[in-house]
Amino acid sequence: MAEHFKPVKYRAWEMSLEERFKEVYPPLTQREAEAEANRCLYCYDAPCMVACPTHIDIPTFIKKIGTGNVKGSARTILESNLMGATCARVCPVDVLCEGSCVLREEKPIAIGRLQRYATDYANEREIRFFEKGKPNGKKVAVIGAGPAGLSCAGELAKTGFDVTVFEKRTWAGGLSTYGIVVFREPVEVSLREVKMIQDLGVQVKCGVEIGKDIDFDEIMSEFDAVFVSIGLGRVPQMEIPGEDAEGVLDGLDFIEETKVDRLDKIDVGQRVCIIGAGNTAIDCATIARRLGSERVTMIYRRSEAEMPAYYFEYQFALKEGVSFMFLTQPIEVIKNARGQVEGLKCVRMDLGQPDASGRRSPVRVPDSEFVVPCDRVIKAIGQNKPKDFMDILAPLGVQQAKGYIAVDPATNRTGNQKIYAGGDCVRSFGEASTVMAVQDGKIAAKAIARELVSIEGENK
Ligand SMILES: Cc1cc2nc3c(=O)[nH]c(=O)nc-3n(C[C@H](O)[C@H](O)[C@H](O)COP(=O)(O)OP(=O)(O)OC[C@H]3O[C@@H](n4cnc5c(N)ncnc54)[C@H](O)[C@@H]3O)c2cc1C
Question: Options 3.50.50.60, 3.40.50.300, 1.10.630.10, 3.20.20.70; which CATH number does 139-233+385-452 get?
Answer without folding.
Answer: 3.50.50.60
